[in-house]
Amino acid sequence: MNTPLADRLRPQSLEDIVGQKELLAPGRPLRRIIESGNIPNLIFYGPSGVGKTTLASYIARITNRSFKKLNGTTASTADIKEIVSSLNTFEGMNGVLLYLDEIQYLNKKQQQTLLEYIENGSITLIASTTENPYFYIYNAILSRSTVFEFKPVEPSEILRAIERAIRVLGEELGKEIAFSDEAKAHICSACGGDVRKSLNAVELCVLAADGEEVLSVDEELAKSLTQRSGARYDRDGDSHYDVISAYQKSMRGSDVDAALFYLARLVEAGDLISACRRLVVCACEDVGLAYPQIIPIVKSCVDIAMQVGFPEARIPLADAVIMVCLAPKSNSGESAISAAQEDVRAGLGQVVPRQLQNVHYDGEERAEKGQNYIYPHLYPNHWTYQQYLPDDIKDHVYYQYGENKTEQAYKAYWERIKGNQ
Q1: Among 7, 10, 69, 58, which residue's Cα sits nearest to residue 31?
Q2: Contact predicate 262/247, CB 8 Å
Q3: Backbone angles phi, psi at 52, to 5 degrees
Q4: pLDDT digits (tens, 9 = 90+) for 154-209
Q5: Inter-residue contact 165 to 205 (CB < 8 Å)
Q6: Whole-angstrom distance, CA of residue 131 vs CA of residue 34
Q7: Is 218 helix (H, G, I), strand (E, B) or coil?
Q8: In the chain, helix, strand, coil percent, each to 5?
Q9: Three-class SS of residue 147?
Q10: Beta bridge partners of 146
Q11: What are phi and psi of 262, to 5 degrees?
């Protein structure tokens, strides 16, 4: 029993694999490819513990090719060359099926070493990665492979694996295992769609259970051994960006409950910086001029959070998140600066109008003397017309008033002032 439970329970058929029905249900493209026996180069992308290695192992069993396995965290160029050298032996006469786990850890040169053999078909590559393959895998390999995305497994599917694990553990230990429904439900929901983590939790619960003939596992024991397992979060990985993206979009969409949930994910992960940064950005970008007072309010909440740290930081952050969600929204400021940047990037407006230039002296050769700047405070309402934009873009309009009452009040004010001149 030194082998991890997840490895002892590797499914022997596609029907035994839990989850990934969108990929492996009868009639789905990946299943048809596997059943055809003609395996192309495949890249499996998704979080840990969702069946990538399990499926690759199953494919290896049904192919008549020599099966090799490497892990990108430990594999060297010499390991890759050793596999290449086996192609000229009796073992590799039908080609090699290479399962390369965590391919994102191989550098570009190591990945390039495989390219020639992948291209001529002597090596069939099945690679898995927890990171976005379009960022981490060499383009030439990507172009010769098909990417399939694996999703976190639903709790109802994880329950199938848990019940099988309990049955197998009972047989191995020669004891009855009384695993409560509440304990099963907790593990199903707390492990974040990770089957391997769920099976590890089951094994820990059984090993820690009381009883001679009957081992009893209740919800309290399950909670004590899986309490933080559900926080799928990697500060350098895709899960990090998924969570902070959902956090900001939930605030933008004015969904208080969702925004608080994603804030809780960040709090539990101890990621104070991301929680604060996205909150301030959202206050400026998505509330903005509809309620401009919120910007210093949110900044104050963030300052307090940074000063007190966790666990208390969660309180001012929650206050600020709720305010941002419930405030009226306007992205007119963000839209305006984006429109202005487009003109800058296009090379427009290079020459600042003379009346706005920092002119201290006109040379004798210049016919036009003086800057001719008009000082607005000398006029009624502290405004008078003069051209501020460069000549080539003088009629461009970047800012459009939002429909909220604050910006409409600004609009009415300036229409009244400018309409009088």
Answers
A1: 58
A2: yes
A3: -65, -50
A4: 888 889 889 988 988 988 888 889 999 998 988 888 777 788 888 888 988 988 88
A5: no
A6: 24
A7: coil
A8: 55, 10, 35
A9: strand
A10: 42
A11: -70, -30
